[in-house]
Amino acid sequence: MRAPFGHELWFVDRAHDRDWSFATEPATLGLLAGAVVLTLAVRVLADFRPGVTLSLPARLVPWMPFAVRIHLAVSLVGLLSAGYYLAPTMELGLTLGGVVLGLVMAVTAVLLVTGWRTRPGALLLVAAGPIGIAVYGFGPVLQRIDLLGLALFLVLTGGGRWSADEERGRTSEPSEERLGQAIWVLRVAVGVALIAVAFAEKLANPDLALTFTDASGVDFNVAEAVGLPVGDLEFVRIAGAIEVLFGLLILSGALPQLIVLAAGIPFNVTLYFFGTIELLGHLPIYAAMLVLLVYGSSPVLRPWCSELWPWSRASRDRVVEALARS
Question: The whole model's pTM is what?
C-alpha cells in the first residue's frame, strides 16, 4: 500500500484517468464530512485552549523569512537540476516555455538565497505561474500552490534577518499585522495544495494509488498490518481523507503547534522510502510547518494564525481582545 503522504504522480509514469465516482461514494463523502466536523471542533477547542507559549521557538520569529527563503530556494534548485518545474510531473523541455520557466527558477533561487531584492524575486516566481499553467495545465500547478504561498509570504515580510536587503537597509521588521497577513497566505496556499493533491492522487484517482502500490513494492497499509480488515482501496480512501483533514486544519490555523506535530510524522516517514525527490518536493511544506510552529509558539502572533481574514478591522479587534485575555 502507498505511503499516506507520498506523491504517486511523482513516481508513476503511466497516466490515469480521473474517477470522481470514487470521491462521491457514500463512504468517501462520510470521511470528508468527518474531516470538516473535526476541523470545526478543533477551531472551537482553540477558543478555549489556543496553544502553549514556548519561549525558544518564539525567539525564532524574526528569522522565519530567512527559513522560508532557504527552503524555497533549495527546493527550486534541486528540482531545476533534475529538469523539473515545481514538481516531477512538470518536466522542463527545450521549448520557449520550458527555458523561460527554468530561468525564472534559477534567478528566483539566487535572489532568495542571498536575500537581495527578495520581494521582486518572490514576485517573479508568482508571475511565472500563468506561464506554467499555459505549459502544463491548471491542475499540476494548483498542486504546487504551496510554493506560491511561500513566495507571497516573502512579498509581505521581505527578506528578514541575514539578508542582503537587511544589510543594505532596504527592508524593515514587519508589523504584527503584516506577519498575520503573511501567515494567512501561507496556510491558505499550503492547505489548498494538500487538498488538491488528496483528490488528484487519491480520492479522484484511486487507480493511480493502486498502481503506485504495485510499482513501489512497499506495503504501507498499516491498518491491515495490525489486523484491521482494511483493503488497499479502502486505505486509499482513508489516506486521502486524512490528507484533506490536514489541509483543512492548516487552512483553519487553529492549534498550529499540535497540527504541525501531527502532520510532521507522515510527511517525514515518506522520506525514508522515496528519497531526494520527495525531500525536494516537501521542503516548502516543511517551511510552512516551521512557520506555523514558531508563530503558534508566540503569544503575540498565535491569535493571528487562525484569523480568517486578517485584513479586516474586525480581525485586528479580535486579536487585541485575545491578547488582552491572555
Answer: 0.89
